[in-house]
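Why do we bother with holo predictions? Because pocket geometry can differ from the apo form. Keep that in mind while you read this record for WTA.
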Amino acid sequence: MSNKIHSLSGYLYEYQKSIANPEEFWADVAERFYWRKSWDKVLEWNFEEPKIQWFINGKLNITENIFERHLFTLANKTAIIWEANDPNEPAIHLTYKQLYEKVGQFANTLKNLNVQKGDRVIIYLPMIPEAVVAMLACARIGAIHSVVFAGFSANSLTDRINDCGAKVVITADGSYRGAKTFPLKSIVDEAVEKCKSIEKVVVFQRTHETVSMVAGRDIWWHDATAGVSTHNEAEEMDSEDMLFILYTSGSTGKPKGVVHTTGGYMVYTQYTFENVFQYKPEDIFWCTADIGWITGHSYIVYAPLLSGATVVMYEGVPTYPHNGRFWEVIDKHKVTHFYTAPTAIRALEALGTDPIQPYSLKSLKVLGSVGEPINVEAWQWYHTHIGKGRCPIVDTWWQTETGGMLISPLAGITPTKPSFATLPLCGVQPVIVDDKGNELKGNNVEGNLCIKFPFPSMLRTTYGDHERCRQTYFSTFKGLYFTGDGARRDEDGYYRILGRVDDVINVSGHRLGTAEVENAINEHPLVIESAVVGYPHDIKGQGIFAYVICDSSVTPDRYENIKNSILITVTKVIGAIAKPDKILFVSGLPKTRSGKIMRRILRKIAEGDANNLGDITTLLNPEIVEEIKQKAGL
Ligand code: WTA
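The structure, written out:
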């Protein structure tokens, strides 16, 4: 299967084709997949409602495209190499045939548990092969999976279950992450108490700790699958049937369920995988993301397996049991492609080069970066010390909403520049607009990054609330999909992503809405009000800075205690990833006359810059700015 680009001129040619005639271009790519019935029409769309449909009336099952399409040739090829948290636990190699059988068996198991096409299933699992099995088993029977990162709290899990009305949760007794274990089952127990829709909880045994099982509701994975046939006929899906929901943070309110559908997601993610990484059949691909995020969905699970690739899946953390663990795993499994986030690169860079010395890293061919802007220094370090100056870096820009990579170099083909995601991939039509929505044409421009034409894997809706999808992405700038990111297009037409322009903070590559974190802080009984902003952080990219107003009864000697209990509250409400890095107690927040918090000022102070606060005379309470500056030590 190939629409593979081999040269820069090839890219330029294909790109022009994809813009001049998108339907023909994508039909040509899509034809290489196995469709039970071909589509009647390639594309229908408008960005007003919005309504986006690709490969209309095409019938398929994405898992048939992973398994049946490959089984004659790839049955004995390794699909997944699983590396445990503990290096003494043997790695597991699962062939395509073995994975196929596990998926078939678990698909039948789900059916036995009364899961039907269209039902929602929550997956709350550690990074173990069963997570992939569970996702693909859902896809096999047409159930819609929603994977929840297993670092989220019970409360976050409850919200997600209730938002999509899930019938089943698939979890484990516990998970290993470095030296710690996490009690996943008891978190699920707490979460499910407030979820009426849940009928069954399937529990995989990983840590063997004692857990309580609710009779009639909870069932062990090994009991549920015992004696169940591995043969399962895939459900026939429409191209536009939902494949999965993935919750992500926005600038307002609770996380929203981004919906991806079957046909377009399949075609686009596989196409981008093959081209961006210049994948070859003998390659070993390692993406370090958790499958709870879109990067894990698209580039650990779906795209590589659709390509018949061998993927490495790692359960643990970069620095356990020693600081060279990532590099050890690369040598051990002869990884050719390593795809990680700038925050991990910076954290490893901070440890110096000693941890790298024992390892040759000679199997590496391509390095990838994703999740946040990569600063020039981290890029150079990655290039020199990990890629040894010979591996191209693909800085891939994309989002949960886009399903696949949108702006990225093609490895070894597109000339790179540190910190630039470079050029749009085929079919992607980025535009930069000013705040009024005027397109800034030509090069050397900077503004809001939008996309003006649909590509096959873009989100279709937000689950249960289409209006929210329209409002969030399609109403800011008429006729355009708004990414929420700022970008610069330089003199060569290269894109540099500047970060979010909305109230979303990107902490270690994780998206968090400021409102979400504020709501969590405000749950603390002694907090009256709070305002959260991002600030530059050496390792995390952005850190969380919280300004907090406490109840007037609180005296300053209690601040230290309250800080700690705010951290506990946030961990409980969202999860540890949302814990503020800095908390400053203040007596008020700068507000406009209409009562809106002036975040611009708070951002500046959090950055340590007290000089360029702009005009503050129009504030309702300008005097508060001086107090905050002083408390921040400025
Ligand atoms: C940011 C992750 C700069 C961006 C795939 C985007 C990036 C958000 C890059 C989406 C990159 C992702 N350079 N910024 N290469 N990749 N981002 O939904 O702000 O978790 O909007 O998807 O991460 O985060 P999400």
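Residues 248, 293-295, 369-373, 395-400, 421, 483-485, 497, 499-500, 506, 511 surround WTA (CB under 6 Å).
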